[in-house]
Design goal:
This protein is α+β, with helices and mostly antiparallel strands. It is 32% helix and 18% strand. The chain has a 3-stranded antiparallel β-sheet with strand order 3-5-4. Strands 1-2 form a two-stranded antiparallel ribbon. Helix 1 crosses helix 3. The termini are far apart.
């Protein structure tokens, strides 16, 4: 066979037959970085938490604290130090001077 490969083609099976269309996109493999981002966003959803607690939660989930620190800049996480203890916060909390801890 010397012909070039054709473009992928998608199809759906219905009760009335087949429908042809665009090929589905292959599923994206979720990386450890993606999992870390999801966990950090979930943990910070209700407001700032201590960096120590965040590190403990990340490591208990089997993820790397080193990866979390790299993800921090991607998510534009803010480090704040109220009361002398480091907290991580989503950017929305950055200018909030009356945060409850």
């Amino acid at each position: 066979n010397l012909a070039p490969f054709s473009d992928p083609l998608g199809l759906k099976v219905h009760n009335k037959g087949l429908t042809f269309g665009d090929a589905p996109t292959p599923p994206r493999q979720e990386t450890l970085k993606d999992q870390t981002k999801d966990l950090i966003l979930d943990l910070l959803a209700d407001g700032p938490i201590t960096a120590e607690k965040l590190q403990r939660e990340i490591e208990q989930a089997g993820l790397s604290w080193h990866t979390a620190k790299r993800v921090k800049s991607d998510l534009k996480i803010v480090s704040i130090k109220p009361g002398g203890i480091w907290h991580w916060s989503l950017p929305a909390f950055e200018d909030d001077n009356e945060m409850d801890f």
